[in-house]
Automatic annotation (TrEMBL):
InterPro entries: NAD(P)-bd_dom_sf. This is NAD(P)-binding domain-containing protein. Gene3D superfamilies: NAD(P)-binding Rossmann-like Domain, UDP-galactose 4-epimerase, domain 1. It comes from marine sediment metagenome.
Amino acid sequence: VDRPGHDQRYAINFQKLQNELGWCPTLNFQEGIAQTVRWYLEHPEWVANVVGGEYRNIRLGTFPG
């Protein structure tokens, strides 16, 4: 099955963004992952909602609301 959710991962090379748009990352990986983990720890209600199955089999952007 080619879709939905077929891709195992996305590897991003920001060189094109940097060259064409002048964008560059403001955080290194360690800082970014620390901020991401902190966000999850600070939002347990969101995590519980996701773990509870509310998003099961729903792809963002493909359902009303």
